[in-house]
Every structure is written in structure tokens, then in C-alpha cells.
Amino acid sequence: MTGKSGGAAVRVKDVSKTFTTPTGQTHAVDSVSFDIAAGSFVSIIGPSGCGKTTVARMIGDLLPPTSGEILIDGESPSMARAGRKFGFVFQRPTLVEWRSVLRNVTLPLDVLGWSKQDKEDRGRELLKLVGLEDFADHRPDQISGGMQQRVAIARALSYDPGVLIMDEPFGALDMITRDRMGFELLRIWAESGKTILFVTHSIEEAVLLSDHVLSMSPRPTSLQKSVLIDLERPRTVQHRTDSRFIAATQELREMLEPHA
User: Residue 260: pLDDT above 90?
Assistant: First the structure.
């Protein structure tokens, strides 16, 4: 895969995952390999329960692979985590309810021992990036779900990782908010220059946002195909009627529908 900056920010090579349960073993991921170029936006789609999240969690050092190799900027996930080379955005924002929006964003910097002024400056810089500079003193329960997820994105960017792993971050939002958040994410990505790995159930969302879409098979999941999205940037709502958008969504749908 090619990207804006070239080189592989993430490399997944022959990765498999088997879970041991009280009833036996479940083979969830079967010999998956792909590269994600630095600066690119890559989505993973596949049938429900196929193992998309398992792949993302292995890259994010939340699960160990049973076999194979994962490298982030040339390092293992555990080393990359220690070096703060990636951030992880979950399906729900998981904000601390008694902390302000600003103090939720700077929470990782508390752990890293940043000074009060440096935390304040970095937090406000990120709130401006995600369009929430006027809500710094609000609590999470005083802002909308979409705004909460923007806070979670800002928090993941707080220590300036090169890679952002996003596991269905808009799945709990209504369709109007989800659409708006997609374009907000593209703006943040363009301004920050990060590499993004984005897990989603939505074919249309994946095509509209991505440089490449990785189509995964049913469990045990394997990579069916990497589809190049040949649409110029910046992406707009009008791209949904572009023949290239329609062709890409149809190609991906035909791969996935037999297993729906």
C-alpha cells in the first residue's frame, strides 16, 4: 500500500490468533498479512464477529498473537506502546465523568509527568484541533456523544503518536452524527498527518474515508483483498455519487454479502 509519506508504519505478517475457552479452542484469525503506509488512512471491514477487532487489538498490544509478527514503526507492539508510538480509540469514549473535557484530554500526560502548564497548552491545542476549544471546562455529561468521541480522539493524540488505531469509534452514534464525525476525522487526519487504522462495519464509511480498505473473511478471519480507493481528496458528500465510489462499494459488498 502506498501512502502520503511512504514506508510501512504498521506491518502485520502471517498473524494468527487462537483463543482457549472452557469448551475448547476458537481459531479467530488465520495468517493475516498487510502493510499500512505511513500517513495513510486504512479501514478494515468484514462480517460481524469475523475478528476485525481482534486484529486491531493485537496491533494495539491489547492481545498477543498466537503466531506471526506485528511491527509498528519497526518495533513490536509492546515496545511501540512503551515508546508511545500509537494511540487507541475504542468503540465508546470511556471518559472520566468527574474530570473536565480538558482534563480528560490531558489524562495520559498526568501519567507521563508533564508540567501543569505544558499539559494545559497541549490540551487546549488539541481541543482546538477537534473543534472543542469552547468546551474545555464542561464535564462529559454536558456534551453530546459525538463531542465525547472527539474528546477521546484528542486524548489519544495527546502524546503525539504516529499511528492512531480506531475500533468502530462511531458505531454508537446516530447516522447524521456519524457522517459529521467522519468528515471531522478526515480534517483531523489531514491536519495531524497521522497514520490511521480504522475498523468499521460500514462499507460506505470505509470507502468514503480511506486510501485502502481491507476486506476480511468470516471467522477465522483472513484478508480477502485490499481495495484501493481511487478518489481524490479532500473527500466530500458529493463523492457518494461518484462512479468510482459506487464501484468500490459494490466490489466490497459482493465480497461480504455471501457471508452476511
Answer: no
Distance of CA 81 to the CA centre of its chain: 15
Q: Do both 140 and 208 map to the same domain?
A: no
- Domain span at residue 202 reads 8-85+161-259
Residue 90 lies in a domain: no
Whether the upstream peptide bond of residue 234 has omega within 30° of 0, thus cis, is: yes
Do 167 and 200 form a contact (C-beta atoms < 8 A)? no
What pTM was estimated for this model as a whole?
A: 0.93
Of residues 88 and 258, more confidently modeled: 88
Decide if 178 is inside a domain: yes
**Mean pLDDT value of segment 43-59:** 95
Using CB atoms within 10 Å of the CB of residue 18, give its burial: 0 to 12 exposed, 13 to 18 middle, 19+ buried: middle
Count Cβ atoms below 10 Å from residue 108 Cβ, excluding itself: 18
CB 19 within 8 A of CB 41: no
The count of domains in the chain is: 2
The answer to whether residues 61 and 171 belong to one domain is: yes
